[in-house]
Design a protein that fits this description.
The protein is α/β, with parallel strands linked by helices. It is about 30% helix and about 25% strand. The strands form 5 sheets. Strands 1, 2, 3, 4, 5, 6, 16 and 17 form an 8-stranded mixed sheet that branches. Helix 1 runs parallel beside helix 9, helix 3 runs antiparallel to helix 4 (about 80-90) and helix 3 (about 50-70) packs across helix 7.
Amino acid sequence: MRTNEQVDVVVVGLGPGGEHIAGTLAEAGLDVVGIEAELVGGECPYWGCVPSKMMIRAGNLLAEAARVPALAGEAAVAPDWGKVSGRVRGEATDDWNDRVAADRLTAKGGRLVRGRARLSGTRRVSVGDQTFEARRGVVLATGTRPRVPPVPGLARTPYWTNRDAMAAKELPASMIVLGGGAIGVELAQVFARFGCRVTVVEGQDRLLSREEPEAGELATRALRADGVSVRTAARAAQVGHDGTAFTVRLEEGGEPLRAERLLVATGRYADLAALGVDTVALDPAARSLHTDGQMRAADGLWAVGDITGRGAFTHVSMYQAEIAVRDILGQPGPDADYRALPRVTFTDPEIGAVGLTERQARQQGLRVRTAVVPLSSSTRGWIHGPGGEGFIKLVEDAERGVLVGATSAGPAGGEVLYGLNVAVHAEVPVARLQHMIYTYPTFHRTIEAALRALN
């Protein structure tokens, strides 16, 4: 028997952004229902950011140990994947149990409903035999799922996605990775450092194709240094599995690739049709939900996170969540501003970027001035020695004299990015940046050299 219930707000999807919205609104005294089909906390803590960075930390330690002979003496290490998978299960995911996160929500006054929800009209959400009518509105924060390319034969094989890789108790002897984006290159490097023979197949002409060409070139050198075979401008034509190993035939021909495991890392997509967005006059075939500056997608409907098409990043979801909370509570605040959107690919070296790439800036019609300098141009970069490869790239709008984009690659590329993020977001004049004091000796000082190179 179907039942209807009135509440203040319904939040569909309790990943980082959705959980934050539900908990914050509940603490503010609203009657909030949070609906989650899987685990409270979402992709990031269980199958994404957190466990992958644990794996990367472990792989980086192995790489650093291998650099000891060049700088400090002798060292010998024996990789043990069990240590990594044990930490992922015990510390990061609680063996994929979300009780702590669920209790955190209910302790704030929110109500948790488990199930797969869909819109059934304006301010209406149905899940199972229940329909919730939201007086203030509904928030969609359902994230994305792995996109599996329509390669002949692939769907019939036991391929992996990021979820399977995060849950792996044992390391495969060999692995083919379809996709050279952030997920693909991060996991390829980690698995290779633990002794797995890895081949990356990327359809574009370089890895990390959405970033600067220099970033893709650096990632390729880094992976190859760890023994990864990198095949760019290559596409899978057919995939097979004989019960033991995968076979991947490429469109370009040649010998087929064989490996014990196949990881599909070819992007993610939002399933808007499954959310019933057509019931509120939105396009179910769209790639993402268009939102205004206050995260409104329609009357009484807000959306945050991956489904808004602003990047599959936890920090974007949390940023948007704060804006949505303010709007739902009727509090004033600035519109969303994505001009300084930061992102980091956590390879070794890390590759951080913010704002526009050079190509994007030119496509927008800007008169662009750029500079690229190696990390070794700073004393800290030279001191670091093995493992210190990297660079700083600046993209300047020459008409306004401000940075509109930057890339920071190196041992601490994601951390060095912070100053560049501030510069792009605040539109600090390049002339002012050129007259700052840059701490010596730090990787950050490379930015000073890049600013000089702009002239």
